Amino acid sequence: MPVLEFHNLAKHFGQTKAIDGITYSVEKGEVFGFLGPNGAGKTTTIRCLMDFIRPSSGSISLFGRDSHQDAVDLKHQVGYLSGYVRMNDKWTGREHIRFYKKLNGRQDSSDELIKRLDFDPTKHAGQLSSGNKQKLGIILAFMHNPDLLVLDEPTTGLDPLLQNDVYELINERVKNGATIFFSSHNLPEVEKICTRVGIIRQGKMVAVQSIDELKVKKVYHVHAHTVGGFDRAKFNQSNVTWLEAPANEISLEVRGDVTEIVKTLSSYQLSDLLIERAPLDKIFLEYYEQ
Amino acid sequence: MGAIIARMFKDRRISLLVYCLSGVAFLEMYVAIYPSIAAQSANFTELLKNYPQEFMKAFGIEKLDMSTLENYIAMEHFSLIWPLMLVIFMIAIAGSALAGEVERGTIELLLSRPLSRLKMFIGRYVYGLIALVVFILTTVFTVIPLASMHHVAYHADRFGIVAIMGMFFGLAIFSLAMLVSAFSSEKGRVSMVMGGLLVLMYVLNLVAALKENLSDLKYFSFFHYFDAQSALTKGELNMTSIWVFVVVIIVSTIVGAVVWTKRDV
Using CA atoms, how far apart are residues B96 and A244, in angstroms rounded to an integer? Predict the structure, then answer.
C-alpha cells in the first residue's frame, strides 16, 4: 500500500489553477523528489498534504487514510519542515522543543539531534541566524521519529556541511523505514538523494519517474576538434543540437543514440574528442521547459 | 490543549500584568482622591449642572451625584476608561490568538502537529476567558481593599454587579474579535475592524442619546447594554443586556470556530 496518494488533486485560487488534477503515489521507503519551477504548484501541493489549505477537488491519502478527515491522528506519523520555517522569535530553542514535544506525544530524540547538529537551544529564535533557525526546524521535524517526512526545500540557505547533515539524517530515517517527500530546486541534491521524482509544471504532473529511468533518457555532450575543417551540414540530424562554441570546434548535444554522430566524426581526422553524459539537470530542465 | 493554554499564559504574562496593574493604578488614583472630591461634592455637582445636558447624556451620566464612591467611580472610570481598557485588552488577545499566528507564519509549525484547529481555537478562547476573569477580578474588586485603606465607604455588591456585567461585555467583545480573527490573516486587521465596529457602536449610542427620533439606534450598540452607571449607582443588573451579550457570545464563538476549522491558513 502506498504511503502517500494524490487522487486527482486540484486547488484553485479564484481563476488561477495552482494545482490542476494531479494523481500519483509514493511508496514506503522511497525518497520522492518533487520538482518544478517557481510557481509550478509544489508548495501548494505540500500545503494541501499538510491540511493547511483544502483542495478544491480530489483528495490525498496518507497511510491509507484521508489527509483531511484524519489529519490530527495522521500528524503523529508526519514530520514537516519548510525551507522558510517561521519560529516564535521570543521563545528559546528549548522552549520550542518542549512545547512541540508535548503536542507530539511520541518518543523523542531531540537531545540526540541537538548534539548532532551542534545547536544551542538556550538562544531565543529571534537571535538565531537563518542557518541555526533551520537547524531548529530540522530538530522539530525529525524529533518524533516520523514515518513520513514532508520536506519543502529543506536545505534552502544551509551551508554545505549542514546540507550533508540533512542528507545523512534523511538516509538514516529511510534505513529505519521512513518515507521522504522532498521538494527542491537543487537538482544535484535531488539526483544525490532521491530514488524517484515527480515533476510538476503549471499545476500538472509532467513526469513521475525513477532517477534511474531519467538517467536512461541519455543526453550526451560531444566536443571534437578536427585536423582541417568539417562540414557542419553532416552533423545536422534530428536528435542533434549545436552548442555555442568556437568556429573550429564541433560542440553538440545529442539526445538518445550517439552512434550516427560517432560514425560521422570517424570520417574526420580528430585532434581532440570528448563525449560525456549531460548532467541530470538538463533532463529536468527539459521537462520544465516543455 | 493544556499546553496551548499554558503557553499563551507564558507568552502574554507581561501584557496581562501591565493591564491589570494599570487598572489597579487607576482605581487607586480615584479612590485616593475621592475623600477630597466627596468633601467638595456639592460644589462639583453645582459645576457639573452647568455642563450641557447633551454632554452629560453623551457620557451616560444621569445623575450628578458624587456623594458615594460608586457614583463617582462609575462616572469617572467605569463608564469610559475601564471599558476602553477591557476592549483593547480583549481585542489584542483575540488578534494574536489566530490572525497573529497566521501573520507570523508560525501557524504552519503548530498545525503540522497532532493538534486540531478546533482544539487550538478552544485553547486560545479559554485563555482569553481566564485572562478576562483575572483582569476583572483585579481591576474591579481591588477597589475593596483600596477603599478600606483610604477609609472610604463602599458597596461591595455593586462592584460585584459591574464585574458580572463587565464579564459578559468583555466576553462578547472577545468572541466577536475571535470571529474576526478567524477570518483574518493579519492581527492589525482585527484591531482595525473591531475598532471601527466599536467606534460605530459608540457613535450610534451617542446619536441615540442626543436625537430622540433616532433613539432606537442604541439597541445596536454594546455601550447601551453595558450600563455601569446603573450597576454602580442603583445596584441594577439589566438581564436584557446579559441576554444580548450571551447571544453575541454564542453566535460569534460558533461561527468563529467553524470559519477557523474550514479556512485555508
Answer: 57
Q: Would the CB atoms of A52 and B7 count as touching at under 8 Å?
A: no
Residues of B in contact with A84 (CB under 8 A): 105
Q: What SS3 state is found at A128?
A: coil
Range of the domain at A266: 217-289
ipTM, 2 dp: 0.84
DSSP string, B101-143: HHHHTTHHHHHTSS--HHHHHHHHHHHHHHHHHHHHHHHHHTH
Which CATH number covers residue A191?
3.40.50.300
Q: For residues A225 and A185, state if they share a domain.
A: no
pTM, two decimals, is 0.87
- Average pLDDT per consecutive 10 residues, chain A (290 residues; last block may be shorter): 94 93 94 89 95 96 95 95 90 96 86 94 94 93 95 87 91 95 84 90 89 77 90 88 88 88 92 84 69
Q: Which three cell numbers stand for residue A113?
A: 539531534
Domain membership flag for residue B63: no
- CA angle at residue A37 from A36 to A39, to 5 degrees? 105
Residue B10: closest C-alpha in chain A: A91
Closest C-alpha among B188, B19, B24, B14 to residue B95: B188
Q: Which of B105, B106, B115 is the closest to A103 by Cβ?
A: B115
